[in-house]
User: Fold this.
Amino acid sequence: MSDIFKIRDKQIKSRLFLGTGKFSDKRLVKLVIDAAKVDVVTVALRRVDLESQDENILDYIPEECTLMPNTSGARTAREAIRIARLAKATGCGNWIKIEVISDNQYLLPDNLETLKAVEVLAAEGFVVLPYISPDISMARRMVKAGAAAIMPLGSPIGSNRGFKTEELVRIMIRQIKVPIIVDAGLAMPSQAAKCMEIGCAAVLVNTAIATAQDPINMALAFSLAVEAGRKAYLSSKRPGIDFAQASSPLTGFLTQE
Amino acid sequence: MRLKINGKQQEIKDCFDLEKLISSKGLNPNNIVVEYNTKIIPKQNWPEVILKPEDMIEIVSFVGGG
Assistant:
């Protein structure tokens, strides 16, 4: 069965996206990418430490990978836009994961600031992938503004609480015509499989792999789960429609003429 | 002269342009992006940027992140 996955004009080989934070040793990043055949890889942008110079993360990411820098650290659209432009100036492509967070405790995204950043960066020609709280109206606005994919959270970043937003993500998959990629909170491969079974285009995993006792085998497990879930989605009957049923009357609205 | 580099005041001697400053810090030009007074400066233009007191310079690079 041919199952080609594209974001804009870029064909993506693996539906498991990898975040590269929290690895105990940067060399593991390359071993994980090779073992799980990861294609899309996330990095962050930070000030260089002028006192102690560390090796560059890019030395451990194969050139064939698609780099998706994030705008972590941004609390406003303005800051995210600045980080995105700096990331693009590295010459490593024009993909950007927009992440705007002002909540330090749960690290939940600020959808309104994220939308503002999508509008500006998509117009500048970035391939924009916003990380959002799963809100369908916001997702629609972001797609209209030019988002290439929508990345709703599964649960808070690094929380390992799993796929808690399933109902909202299901609706998003039905209603939104760009790829839906669950990002954050997935702890176990079974949760990644679940995301794929309901029709997500991909998942992004970092903490669960990076902090596993054996990150290489955990990445392999996630990769198999993502493939299994995808195959199940493609082979199953299309799931029944489960639209909402209004509990208030659908007549007599103030706006009716 | 005093410059602000990555948010910290620093006393800099003998660096008249951005390229000399970067090389004096031992940084690999291929791994970094430089913002000079909030404007991104491409590598090839570093020698043309003459530093003056109170300039603000940000030097960034990619790190692991999710």
The longest strand of chain B covers residues 56-64. The domain at 2-60 of chain B is CATH 3.10.20.30 (Ubiquitin-like (UB roll)). Helices of chain B lie at 18-24. Chain B has one helix and five strands.
